[in-house]
Structure formats: structure tokens, C-alpha cells
Amino acid sequence: xxxxxxxxxxxxxxxxxxxxxxxxxxxxxxxxxxxxxxxxxxxxxxxxxxxxxxxxxxxxxxxxxxxxxxxxxxxxxxxxxxxxxxxxxxxxxxxxxxxxxxxxxxxxxxxxxxxxxxxxxxxxxxxx
Amino acid sequence: xxxxxxxxxxxxxxxxxxxxxxxxxxxxxxxxxxxxxxxxxxxxxxxxxxxxxxxxxxxxxxxxxxxxxxxxxxxxxxxxxxxxxxxxxxxxxxxxxxxxxxxxxxxxxxxxxxxxxxxxxxxxxxxx
DNA sequence: TCGAAAATTGACTTTTACGTAAAAGCCGTG
DNA sequence: CACGGCTTTTACGTAAAAGTCAATTTTCGA
Lengths: 128, 128
Known about the structure:
2 copies of one chain form a homodimer. The first copy, chain A, is mainly alpha-helical. Helix content of chain A is 69%, strand content 5%. A two-stranded antiparallel ribbon of chain A has the order 1-2. In chain A, a hairpin with a 2-residue loop joins strand 1 and strand 2 (38-40). In chain A, 23% of the residues are buried. At the A-B interface, helix 3, helix 4 and helix 5 of A face helix 3, helix 4 and helix 5 of B.
């Protein structure tokens, strides 16, 4: 486990641009430490980037990703805050489960389309 | 099963604007029939709208949704075309399975965050 | 048949999520 | 020491996906 990663190391690892990483920083999603003016990304920053990209992949906006990240942060001390956080987590879970249903439905439609193609090919005497 | 739906019926059902439906039409995603200049959406158009919104929900761009819609269409007659279509279907399935993994990972992280909150509350003597 | 409500087109605007370009600082190598 | 490579900030640009507004039709129910 490395101590720090440079910005280009992360861009190469994740296939994104430096602009994207700086943008996420501007948006308050990540806060790499600095040596002088140069950004140094810790393993925890790297992990956060991975999570951000996962969120992006499944169609969350930056604002929504920010909300999810808030939730990842260490739980606060106060009871009210904890309960509020639990509520927010539940909401995000609902969002994700809905997305999962949408995803499964789309996969099923694709499977049907696939089957139709295979059948049509069979009719034409082609073995897949 | 109704014959036709008006544009506002669909906007209400799906919680989108008329502009959005017309935009999808401009983009060639749906082609409702017309009575005069008025759009009439068939059940198949309605179903297509549902699919479009599902695609949008899970982070596909209009261009990607268009590709998926191409795939839904009745399989063509020619063998080469059919094989090409099968290849495109496989590609979309890969995309979706990756998204599903990202989604599951995010759900797991949320479950961990939830557990941390519950434990912290338990330490404070609060029963959830 | 008349008038409100709904639908149309077209143009312009907005938001999100970066891209791109300019100008300059740091740093190891030959 | 200058060179290439990586990094920085600042600033403007842009594509996608609609939102908004205006000016007209069109439709439909009383």
C-alpha cells in the first residue's frame, strides 16, 4: 500500500483526465494533501475516486455523489445526526434498488432480443 | 389496453415534460403517429418511453439509448445483420453487468455505513 | 359554434460535467 | 543549464439534455 499517488498515476489507473480530478476537488468531493502546490493523493483519496466513478457509472450526478460521500464519512457523535444519517442512507438505498430494477428490466429486454435473433438464425439454418 | 395516449397523459404518467417527449422524438427515439399535427402515442410508443427512461435512469446517454432501441427492433432478415445485432446485444449486456457490479459495490458500502451508524447508536444506548 | 384548454413549432437559455488553451513553476537527466 | 515531462492556476469553451418563452394553431366540451 503506497503512501501517495500523483495525479497522473490516478488518471492512468482510472482512465480519466487531470481536469476531472481537479474538478472533483473543486466540487469538494476529494481533498488530496499538498506538498507545496502539488497534489498528493492518499490511498483513502484513491478509494474515494473509485467510489465517485462508480457513482458516475450508474448515473448519479455530482450533487448526488456528494450526498453519498457525506454518508461514507465517519459517523458523527450526536444521536440526532446519526439518525438523520441513517435516514439519508435509506433514501440512497432506495434510489439504488430502483436503479437495479431498471437495470434488470433492461437486461431482460436484451435477453429477449437476443433470443429472437438466435431463433431467427436457427430458422435460416444457422447454428449459433 | 388503450389505443392511444395524448402527450400530457404520458407526461403525467412518467413525470416528464412535453419538451422531453418532443426532444426524444427529434432524436429519433420515438415516432408517435399523428392525427393532423397532434401526436398520438400507441401502447408500443408508451412502452418505448418507459424503456428510454429506464436507460436514462441507469446512466445511458441518448446515443446509447438509441443503440439499445435499435436492438429492440424486430430482428432483420439477413444473416450478417443478425450476427451484427447479436454482437451489439452482447456489448450492451457487458455494459449493464458492469453497471450492476458498480451498483452492488455502492450498495455494500452503504450497508457498511449503515452498520457503523447503528453500532455507534448502540454504544450510546439507543436501540434502533 | 364558441372559447378555454391543450398542442404545436421554433428560438433562445440553462445546467452539468467536464475539455482545452495559456502561461508558468518544479525537478531530474544528459 | 536547458530540456522534457509533469504540475499548477486561470479562464473560456462546449456538448448533452432538457427548460423556458412566445406565437400560433387545434381540439373539445358546454
